[in-house]
Amino acid sequence: MEILARPMGPYQTNCYLVESDEGTLVIDPGMGATGWVLENTRNPVAILNTHGHFDHVWSNAELKERLGVPIYCPEGDTFMLHSDPLGQGMPPSRADVAVEPESTFTIAGLPVRFRHFPGHTPGCSVIEIGEHWFSGDFLFRDSIGRWDFPYSSAEAMLSSLRKLVTIDGDYRLHPGHGVESTLSRERRMIPYWIRTVSQS
Known about the structure:
The protein is of the alpha/beta class. The chain has seven helices and 14 strands.
């Protein structure tokens, strides 16, 4: 398995390409991602969204039209793909697969699990592929996602953070913004974030 990454658009949202012998998964194609994706994929088979915010799904529609592959989006966020709740003028798209929490698929021969960590958005998820976590806007290096946007929830974020500390093992963390980290590194800061969200 190979992973390519490129920050896209004014919010420098990381778009990822996960390549296996059987095809390529496109994760979070944000603003301006289409050209880069087309130049760097040999056999794209699916578009995966960690959540529904515009800067992560902006190129869904264009890539769907060009590639003819299905879009997987957490079911709690599918409405965002076509309703543009943050009013950014995002091209509308539709999820072909509304992913239920904690669902697992085999795509391009890879085990793909959507771990549900709501708070930043109702459907906010980490996409787990083997030892890799594509964490969207839930967990970053030295930070977590905001919980003060429309459809965000401090209460849900607290539940997700408490759930996070119960997960065993370590994973390589590929966040929606910024540089890579590991779950073990970020786990040390979770008690701080629980206190911070609780006091907000």
